[in-house]
Design a protein that fits this description.
Elements (H helix, E strand, L loop, with lengths): L3 H12 L5 H12 L3 H13 L1 H9 L10
Helix pairs in contact: 2-4, 3-4
Length: about 70
């Protein structure tokens, strides 16, 4: 993870007890696998709610198929 502000947000959510180590580990692994645009979306989400963004990153979410 290369962004200090994002690192602090992940740490703050963990230190507050709102997410556990398993949630944090999964979220960090997924975050590290994102491209720059996807990371920007997560960073904006974390600016609003560290906990919700981490839980979203942890969740197994499948995006709906885009149809014509």
């Amino acid at each position: 993870m290369d962004d200090a502000a994002t690192q602090r947000r992940f740490a703050r959510a963990y230190e507050s007890g709102e997410v556990d180590s398993d949630e944090l580990t999964t979220a960090v692994k997924r975050y590290d696998g994102l491209d720059a645009d996807e990371k920007a979306i997560v960073q904006r989400s974390m600016a609003r709610s560290d906990t919700d963004a981490i839980r979203l990153m942890r969740a197994d979410v499948t995006a709906p198929a885009m149809g014509s």
